């Protein structure tokens, strides 16, 4: 039987969660409505949930630029998919190795991983290393390798999950049956690690999809424009709206006034839409993976 205290606690919890959800949904709803608002009316009256004039001019402009934006979408999808898969592979391999504390040298390696969370060489040294030593400038690897491929935080998260979420007896039983470490990792550890794999996959995928700094640092307009991602393209469009307005005649045969105000909202909607479609499929694993991976014995 539920007590009066339980019902009050549940009601308060529901009210808090509803309020928190509204804090997230209301700004996003305003963003979508603003992208469909007439540019002239929005410039004069500001954005509101009930605009008196609606317009598709912002989306018409994006559609006219779809040859460039569409290519950027394909590049972004490729970079996100390949980068996420490589990141999961490298992170889980490193985490499995460092979770074996009985192996000599693992404590030192764990310290070095933690050290990278506290100190780094800085932007200049990082840029010099990637450009002059690894020669990734104006290549697709410039969008995959720097900063995003593997992080100490995710290694520690997965390592703790392996230690606390997978019974050691399973690995020991596999070793008695003659399985090697790689076979144990593939056949025993990974199938039991779906929550944490989905968690780090979602975080890494979001980071790759939203990344624009690698494109800014390592891609030049002359040699690397073919590798521009959607975030780089949309950021360039957003930064150059005024100059594009002065050259609106070059946008195509459709004669419209470039929506300098509402296009920023439309750009944000276009950039976030794919993430909204993918997130529900991973959400069920996210909390479980973070909870189990964040526990340290």
Report helical residue fraction.
over 70%
What structural class should be given to the helix and strand makeup? Answer: mainly alpha
Unreliable stretches, pLDDT < 50, 5 or more residues? Answer: 249-256, 293-297
**What's the total count of β strands?**
0
Question: Over the alpha carbons, how many angstroms does the gyration radius reach?
Answer: 24 Å
Shape: flat
Note the main sheet. none
Describe the structure.
The two termini are 35 Å apart. The model is unreliable at 249-256 and 293-297 (pLDDT under 50). This protein has 14 helices and no strands. Helix 4 (66-99) crosses helix 7 (152-165). 70% of the residues lie in helices and 0% in strands.
Descriptors:
70% helix; mainly alpha; 297 residues
Compact summary:
The protein is mostly helical and about 300 residues long. Helices cover about 70% and strands about 0% of the residues. It has helices at about 5-35, 40-45, 55-65, 65-100, 105-120, 120-135, 150-165, 170-175, 180-190, 195-210, 215-220, 230-240, 240-245, 260-295.
